[in-house]
Amino acid sequence: MKNNNYGTGYVYILSNKSMPGLVKIGLTTRLPEDRSNELFKTSIPTPFEVSFRIATSHPKEVEKKSHSLLSDCRVNPNREFFEISVEGAIEAVRHSAIEMSGINSWSSGSVQNLNENDRVTLSLETGQVFALISFSNIFSNQAEIIDLWQVHSNCDQLELHCVDSTTKTSSFSSNHPFSESDPVPYLDRENKVMNGMINGREVLVAGDRLVWIPTVNDRTNQQGVIFEACGAVQVISRTWSPVIGSHGIPLILNDFNYESVWPEAKKAVDRALKLGVPRTWAPRNNRGDEWTEFGTDPQPAEYWLPQLSRRKNNVKNRKTKLCT
């Protein structure tokens, strides 16, 4: 099993009224607004505006791919400015995120351990599936699928926040306290930039395994990706392009519409089910013990998104490294 420290950064698009027709595409581990403010110098009459941002655990790769896709639009090879519309730049960054921060960017041969303070952000693709696998009794050595989730639109985002207690986590499906509230409704400190709509909020406990399964048409990934929770994990799914179901309301992560299983999905799940017992384990049911309570200790937005902190060098940011 592979041990890493995972963090989340941003690839951003900046525009400026004084530079019509040009955008800047860059990366940062801080808020894009902080980077934008740094670029506003006396030689530029107007400030930069953050036109778009995407969170990712692979910001270097997403930025590099975006620059490559737009190489013909690059104004200067030594500068990150491109002669393209904001809409065109957004399309390039979104495409790059799926390719460079999607399922094929993770090692499918090793189990990815999720340790305390890790922050993982996955770029999703329509039709992908997640299988939640758990041991109801660690002594039985028998794992089982307890839930299936489905991605309904491209560039949806799955966040895995590894915390020190289940009391900070909540689940839609279990109706835990605060499960329907958005812990990070805004992406800036001034509460002007709304975050994507939450369409899933679930919980992993120690020993749970989450299998990321490729789409039925994906022949490049034959095994999927397996994440193993070494402690409590808050799972949050977001969408910027809600898909309306037949019932007239947006589909959520828990809406599973597949009626059959394709070979790659079966192979990925079978591999996870055959793994040995996890290194750590906790029961999913609530017995009244403090360590199995859920949703009793909600946290502020800057806990889930440390970049929102006004401290210049946030300690939590220094503890994690971005996945490369």
From TrEMBL:
It holds the Pfam family T5orf172. It comes from Oleispira antarctica RB-8. SMART domains: T5orf172 (SM00974). This is Bacteriophage T5 Orf172 DNA-binding domain-containing protein. InterPro entries: Phage_T5_Orf172_DNA-bd. Residues 17-96 form the Bacteriophage T5 Orf172 DNA-binding domain.
